[in-house]
Fold these 3 entries.
Entry 1:
Amino acid sequence: MRRTLDELGKRGAAIATRVDPAKAATVAALLPAVTYHELARVVSFGTGGARPPAAKIAVVCAGTSDLPVAEEAAVTAELMGNTVDRLYDVGVAGLHRLLKEHARLTSARVIIAVAGMEGALPSVVGGLVDVPVIAVPTSVGYGAAFGGLSALLTMLTSCAAGITVVNIDNGFGAGFAAALINRLGSAPEPVP
């Protein structure tokens, strides 16, 4: 088994999501080569191997309460060989913060927009750029947020073109999809 894990670490990456610190410590005791990304709640092993250069992915996050989901997306995309530009705490409640980052937004090939509450951030971002936007609703909010359902419905009914939506709190799915989209501009990789 040790040889198999060493080979995996050289050829690809393995990740586990939604890992709390106690479980991460247990895994690290068994396999010291793992890395724990605490804010993202991700355990990773290996590097994902060398990839052809690609454009960057921007991960845009509305508020600090959305950071764990945003980091899950960012770490996933990085482990898949992508460069990630993080723009955090740029939600629509302080629209000037987002508008100030317009050049960074337009320099990305794909954008992941993470937001809870009413979930308006992806629509605003989608109106500012001409690249795919992956919307990630989070379960952050109170009252009529309904555990992220309000943000999900807002994102699903966006009038901005080019937005696709993953499920509530699915940072992994967004990071994975963004990495696949980002590779479209690169030469295809050979299948081992």
Entry 2:
Amino acid sequence: MSAAPEIARLAFGVPSPAAGSAPLTIGALARKLQLIASSPERWWGLVRFHTARSERIDLDLPGARYAAWLVVLAPGDPGHYCDCDLMMLVAGEAAEESVADGGGVTTDLKAGRARVHGHGQVHQIRAAGTGFAVTLHVQASA
């Protein structure tokens, strides 16, 4: 006999401790970023390609304790400044420029890999190839 059904019934009614009050950790934000990225049918229709400039597109996430947005990076545009907690390249080629203790650092972004930033660290992203790039960003709500 299995005790799993009884355990499941008991656990179903138990609220998680401080579910709504604790700030989201970087790991929890990374999970949210991955969930959003894995469902492009929910947001890809918002993407617009403007040849003259890069554009930020806020995602509407009712009840979320974090903000999420897309950035469409136009080729040849100087880029977009950002202060997100995590980001991910979802299409195209892009590079990130950030200021570190030793000066400016440029990093080529890999599609599907979460990039973590320190709290309040401003960085600049730009399309690295000859085409558009799309990045996805999340930031814990204050």
Entry 3:
Amino acid sequence: MPIYLANAFSLNMLPDKFDGFIRVKRDIQLDTVKKLLQNNFINAIGHEGTAQLINSLFGLTLTANRVSVKLSRGDIVLIVQLKERLPEGKILNTDEVLDLYNQGKIQFDFVKVE
């Protein structure tokens, strides 16, 4: 049961012939995220500013890691999610991501494939 840390979730992450359920818990607490990240996890954060936010919150040393994720039953994805849509083409730097987090505009979501 791998745990992925990502900045997005897409139905393309599911197998092509997927017939199952996806359990979602929105806006989970930081202590829950920290507990889940204590085990081995796969970094799928594709944005450097978001990786730096994770580093500052949890004392990690991640860098952006743009990888394709294919999920199976039992897999978990922790998603760092913006609560608002950015202007088209806007790329946030680390300070902007931290500022959005401090304003309560970033949340963590939990997805489990069942």
